[in-house]
Structure formats: C-alpha cells, structure tokens
Design goal:
Length: about 575
C-alpha cells in the first residue's frame, strides 16, 4: 500500500493553498519536507541564515500580497527566525513559518536542539502559533494557518512539527488535499463611505494618507483613479511608497512632508487615513505632522486601530480596495471642488529637500555628498524597478529622492526598525518579480547583518543590485551622539572602511568601488548591464547629517527637555 509522510502532507497542502515556494535553510528535522518539494515542483530558495530566510519570505509577501513559506530547523534555526517573525508581525505581513523540533517522545530527554518551548517563544510575535502533534492533522492545521495569515489584518503564523510527526508514514488514501478558499472581506458601510466623502468635499485642504493596507490589498489602480477624480493629494508612508507613481502631480511624498506644511500653517484640515496606522509615522501623540483639530477619516481592515492616539471623525472597518471601489462609485456622481492652489502647496512643500541640497547636485568633491549619490542613483535606475532600502540615514537619502525614480514598488522595515532586512527583502522581491530590476540601497552598517546573502543571490542567479552608502560609521548613531553630547563623546559608532565590493566579488557577484561623484549613474548602469547580482560600494561624505537624524534628536522645545532618540522627549525638571 502506498504511503506518504508528513513532509508530503505539508507540501501538498501548501500547494492547495496557492503557496508554491518557500525560503529555507537546511536542517534534518524537516528533511521529509525538502524531499517532497523535489517531487512536487515546490520551489525552494535556501539562504545562508534563518533570519534571512524569514525576511526574504516577508519581502516576497510585501512584493506580491501573498504569503510564502519559511522552513527552519529546530533550536537555533527557530530562534534565528524570531526577528523576522517580529518584523512581519508588526508590519502585518503574511507568511507561514514551519520549524522542526525534537521528537515528542524525547521532549524531556535533553535532546539535541530541543529543551525549550518554541511555540511559547514564537507566540508573542505571531498571529497564531501552534504545535502539530499528529501527522494526519497536518493538512487541516496548515489550511487554517494559511487562512489565519492572510485574512483580516495579515500576519505571520508559526507552526512547529516535531521530527516523529513529520517522518511518520501514513497510508496514501487517508490524505485528500483540503480546499482552501480565501474569505471575501465584508463591504464597507455605505453610510460611512458617504459620510467620509462629505467631510472630504467640505474640507479646504483634504489629503489621503496611504499605508500598507493599500499596497497589501492591491489597491494601486483604485487609489490613483480616486485621487485623480477628486483632485486630492496623496501622501505615502514607508510601507506604501510606489502605490502612486512618484512622478504623479498629486503625490505629496512621505508623511514627514506634512511637517513642512504644518510649520507653514498649511496642514491638511481633513485626512483620509487609508490603511495607515496612527503612530510613529504620523507624529506619534504630538501635533508635529497633523494639527489636533484635523478631521481623521480612518479606514482599516482592523477596527481596533480606529481611534488609536486620537479620535476619528469617521471610522470604517474595511479592506482598502473595497472601500475605494465603493467610494469611487459614489464620488463619480459628485461635483468635486477644484483646489489647484492646495495641490501646488503640497508639491512645493514636497520639494523642500531639493532646495536645501541643490548645490550638492553639482558638487565634484569627494567623498560624495549622500544626497547627490542618492539622486544620481535614482535617475539611473530603469522604469519599473523595485527599491528596497535598509539602514538609518541611507533610508533617508534614498526616500527623499524617490521622485526621481520611476519605481514599481518600494519596501523597508517598519515598526520594528530592523536593520539587515535589505538584502533578504530584495531576494524575496526578485523571486516575486524575476523580470524587474531590484535595487537594494543600504548603509555600510546595515549591510553587515546579512552580507553573506550575496552568496544566495549568486547561487540562485538573482540579479539584485546592492548599493552601499559607505560613510565608514553608523551614521545615524554617530551624528546623533555628536548632536546630543558633543564631538568628543562618540562611542562604538565608527566602522572604518571596508572593501565590501571585494566581499561581493568573493561570493561571485559583479562589484565596483565608486569614489568619483560623476560615476554613480554610470556605475549603476554597468552593474545592471552585467546581468548578475552586483554590488556598488559608494564612498559618501561622513560629515553630512541626514535631515532624518536632525528630526530624531534635535527637536527640543526647551532647555529643560531631555532628548530620547526616536521617541518623545522627557519634560525634565
């Protein structure tokens, strides 16, 4: 009688749920899964570290809106992936993490790579965490895991499968692939949709603040149609850049640009918070970005987010794409006021950094000014590229120059603020979009977390371009220390130079070191033309401080305030 083991059940159930690829690092605990992948055309991308496997799966999900699987071995394999779980959990990214474990019968036997409760470790940073204890239940539990990961507010799911469960054979006729149907989100309340439109029509300075809910729900086209119909400018946060073309006349740039409008007394008086959460990226509990009297119209698939930090004038619990479809249908029958001067104010404010750093664009000095390096880089990338950004100040220089880039998508870590995600995210994006250029922009600090993934790119022929902004230090930390305590109080922030291009070459990549300010654009084109994974080590001026750093540590309203980087200051005594 034909038999199947737990590995076959895992792979066939994932395939039944529309998941046909996974990211992994080999371990014997899950060997039946890997053998079943060979026999069932299930694609596996093996990385050099389990954290990278988890982040790569998250990159794939961010680039597609669909979950991928992650396979890690027991013990250190599982603990290594916890950071990726936390990052995906905080940013609402769906993925299925499957970890091996010691056999159930050896749970109290001081077994290799065992001895602690993996499910308990994963539970606080997972949407659902569960241990499978019977082989025949694998299909049912994985089917549920897929639906949990992608339904409602998406997130990662963690499953542990002990070795004796995954290796156990069963008669084949006992297995039937489950039918896994994704639930359709409920339609938004029609009266609430109309109330939102009434607020927006009567506002003098209405705006849309788009977040991850727009990108993950596949609402790009719907958002563009709605903003063009209504004439409302759109601001995007770091998890939604690219949902509106960066060259679009109505794109106001990052949420941070609201600070410029607010300081000029010209902030929005009504915002449609579309799939974006109030918090760090909207000024926290302060009025730095949005005045306290701004009307908030909150649309979120998770109703518990509505009313966070400040009350909403209207709250709509709905999928962003369904809300936009309903709003478009009603809005087409209304006469929207022309508000050209407001859109022009938004466009002018969004260009503040171009005016501040205009002289750098013609500079021939070396090391290269980071604003010029980022600008020339963005001008050189092809249309339809995916941009992945990592690091502290490197992110700020890249984000300010997105208007110069005809990008298809953008990704960066969000609320966890996790460094080292850049190259794994880029791997996931390149697997998701093999025919599109993928450019990873990172700092020399951040690249060190997963520099070994150059080898993953080379082995799997993933032509990601990694651009390192090298200022020989942890830029955000070093500049922050200098601003807070003085130049003579720097501690553990210097890195010194490193030939990262030679590291990449050693792993089989095309690489260059760039020191000439006029060579950034040409080097980008050479690297992309190589058709191989590539690395550009760009030497930038370590003395230039990013505006992001100034905002984080320099916003003191009085001498008594105690500055805490990244958070609200203490009042002091």
């Amino acid at each position: 009688m034909a038999q199947v083991d737990g590995g076959v059940l895992v792979i066939k159930t994932l395939l039944a749920g529309g998941i046909d690829r996974g990211f992994a690092l080999h371990g014997g605990h899950l060997e039946p899964v890997f053998q079943a992948a060979i026999d069932n055309s299930f694609a596996l991308i093996d990385t050099r570290h389990e954290a990278a496997a988890g982040h790569a799966a998250a990159g794939y999900a961010r680039a597609t809106g669909r979950p991928a699987a992650v396979f890690v071995t027991a013990g250190p394999g599982m603990t290594n992936v916890v950071t990726a779980l936390a990052d995906a959990y905080l940013d609402c990214v769906p993925m299925i993490v499957i970890a091996g474990a010691e056999p159930l019968v050896e749970a109290e036997a001081n077994a290799l790579q065992g001895g602690f409760d993996q499910v308990a470790v994963a539970a606080p940073v997972s949407k659902w965490a569960f241990r499978i204890t019977r082989t025949e239940t694998i299909p049912r539990i994985i089917a549920r895991a897929i639906n949990v990961a992608r339904s409602g507010r998406p997130g990662p799911v963690f499953l542990e499968i002990p070795a004796d469960v995954i290796y156990q054979p069963l008669p084949y006729q006992q297995f039937e692939p489950p039918k896994i149907e994704r639930a359709t989100p409920s339609a938004p309340d029609a009266a609430a949709v109309r109330k939102c439109l009434d607020y927006l029509m009567s506002a003098r300075r209405p705006a849309i603040l788009a977040g991850a809910g727009v990108s993950l729900s596949g609402s790009k086209n719907a958002l563009q149609a709605f903003c063009e119909l209504t004439g409302m400018p759109v601001f995007t946060n770091c998890k939604a850049h690219g949902v509106l073309p960066t060259s679009h006349a109505l794109w106001g740039g990052d949420f941070a640009n609201l600070k410029v409008l607010n300081e000029n007394g010209n902030a929005p008086d009504c915002v449609l918070l579309l799939g974006a959460r109030l918090g760090r990226y909207t000024g926290g509990a302060t009025d730095a970005l949005l005045p306290f009297d701004t009307n908030i119209l909150a649309v979120d698939i998770d109703g518990s987010e509505i009313g966070r930090l400040r009350p909403a004038s209207v709250g709509v619990e709905a999928d962003c794409r369904m809300f936009l479809a309903a709003a478009q249908g009603v809005a087409e029958g209304l006469s929207w006021p022309e508000n050209k001067s407001w859109s022009e104010d938004v466009a002018f404010s969004a260009g503040w950094h171009e005016r501040r750093f205009s002289e750098s664009l013609s500079s021939t000095s070396a090391p290269i000014h980071p604003y010029k390096a980022a600008h020339d880089l963005m001008k050189a990338i092809p249309a339809g590229s995916w941009i992945v950004v990592d690091g502290g100040e490197a992110y700020n220089w890249a984000e300010m120059n997105l208007a110069a880039a005809p990008i298809e998508g953008f990704m960066v870590t969000g609320y966890l603020g996790c460094l080292g995600t850049g190259q794994p995210f880029a791997i996931g994006a390149q697997v998701a979009h093999p025919d599109r250029p993928v450019i990873c922009i990172t700092g020399d600090g951040a690249v060190g977390f997963n520099v070994q993934e150059f080898h993953t790119m080379a082995r799997h022929k993933l032509p990601v371009l990694t651009v390192i902004f090298n200022n020989e230090c942890w830029g955000l930390s070093k500049h922050g220390q200098s601003m807070m305590f003085g130049e003579n109080r720097q501690c553990i922030v210097d890195l010194e130079d490193c030939a990262y291009e030679r590291v990449a070459e050693g792993f089989g990549c095309y690489a260059e070191r760039v020191t000439d300010p006029d060579e950034v654009g040409p080097a980008v084109k050479r690297a992309l033309a190589s058709g191989r994974p590539s690395c550009l080590n760009i030497m930038i001026d370590p003395k230039v401080v990013a505006p992001f750093t100034e905002a984080l540590v320099g916003n003191r309203k009085s001498d008594k305030e105690v500055v805490i980087p990244y958070y609200e200051n203490l009042a002091g005594q």
